[in-house]
Amino acid sequence: MDMQTSFLDRLFDAGLLIDTGVDGLYGRSGQFEDVIAAFERLIDRFADDNAEVIRFPPGMSRAIFEKSGYMKSFPQLAGTVHSFCGGELDHMSLLKCMEVGDDWTKDQKATDIALTPAACYPLYPTIARRGRLPATGGLFDLQSYCFRHEPSKDPARQQLFRMREYVCMGTEEQVTEFRQSWMDRGVKMMEAVGLDVVIDVANDPFFGRAGKMLANNQRDQNLKFELLIPITSTAQPSACMSFNYHQDAFGTKWGLELDDGSVAHTACVGFGLERIALALFHHHGLDVTEWPVAARKALWG
Ligand code: ATP
Ligand code: ZN
């Protein structure tokens, strides 16, 4: 059995994750949730910078999703919500379809909702609608379940998982300084809970052959960094945080303006909450009462 499957099975056996029959779709125990809640409080303590808290649901406007360009870059990961919109006759043929085991989903119609692929996607148009940003720029604290269609036996690669994010909007200096400060904080936070990390340059999984160029470009310009911790592989540690500088791409797309009317630069920092909990369980063991005192203290005081 490979390391990913055996760790997943141990998490199931311990009741920390609950099997649903679908790879990457799991229930979580109270203990698992308590680790995430404690880690989020640790994030709050490190943040300490008056970000505006906004919580969106795990679904977003399909129109905004379309305009975001997600389908250009990551069609393989996207999820959309479809519903039955027919009349009684359609309903009868739907039930018949299900009864005989045919594909009943082909007549489902797209709703106005797409599943949120990253916590910050609904934010940019929301803030643009308010008008120009104040002279201090914008700083936001987000958290959302996110969907990505990447079924896997690796418990660190789920299809529905939570991302906590901080997003900064401002000048190039403001947002790159924000990103750097979170790289430093990220390293300190993981040190506080007893996890060894490395930070490395990274790229997003852009689709197709044209995507290779986009990925290379992203790397060459140091637009994305990841904080990596080994969970199910030491050779390929998992990204538990990412630090992304979008230049003025989102500012231009969504019409985000600074107080002098110039286009805002943006950056976002994402914590993969399940991955961080899994890194803690992997390194300190499945029984939290046995975790190192310093890590327990950082999490629960
Ligand atoms: P990876 O390279 O591992 O696929 P990513 O580049 O897709 O990660 P981001 O898009 O930067 O990751 O997402 C922000 C954070 O969300 C990641 O650093 C990670 O901690 C978490 N994350 C991303 N995809 C998943 C997933 N499928 N399951 C659990 N957590 C995830
Ligand atoms: Zn990914």
Offer a few descriptive terms.
2 domains, binds zinc ion, seven-stranded mixed β-sheet, 301 residues, 12 strands, three-stranded antiparallel β-sheet, 11 helices, single chain, 23% strand, binds adenosine-5'-triphosphate, BirA Bifunctional Protein, domain 2, alpha+beta
Structure explained in plain terms:
With about 300 residues, the protein is an alpha+beta fold. The chain contains eleven helices and twelve strands. The chain has two domains: about 5-80 and about 115-300, BirA Bifunctional Protein, domain 2 (2-Layer Sandwich), CATH 3.30.930; about 80-115, no CATH class. The two termini are about 40 Å apart. The mean pLDDT is about 95. Bound molecules: adenosine-5'-triphosphate and zinc ion. Adenosine-5'-triphosphate binds near residues 148 and 204.
Task: Summarize the structure in short.
This protein has 301 residues and is of the alpha+beta class. Helices cover 40% and strands 23% of the residues. Adenosine-5'-triphosphate is lined by residues 118, 148, 150, 157-158, 161, 163, 204-205, 226, 239-242, 270, 272, 274-275.
**CATH homology superfamily name of the largest domain:** Bira Bifunctional Protein, Domain 2
Secondary-structure element order, N to C: HEEHEEHHEHEHEEHEHEEHEHH
Strand order of the largest sheet: 3-7-8-12-11-10-9
Strand portion:
15-25%
CATH class call of the largest domain: Alpha Beta
Number of helices: 11
Based on secondary structure, the structural category is alpha+beta
Arithmetic mean of pLDDT = 97
CATH architecture field of the largest domain = 2-Layer Sandwich
When the domains are counted, the total is 2
Number of strands: 12
Question: Segments where pLDDT lies below 50 for 5+ residues?
Answer: none
Outline type: globular
Any ligands, ions or cofactors bound here, and which? adenosine-5'-triphosphate, zinc ion
User: What is the share of helical residues?
Assistant: 25-40%
N- to C-terminal distance = 38 Å
Can you tell me the CATH topology of the largest domain?
BirA Bifunctional Protein, domain 2
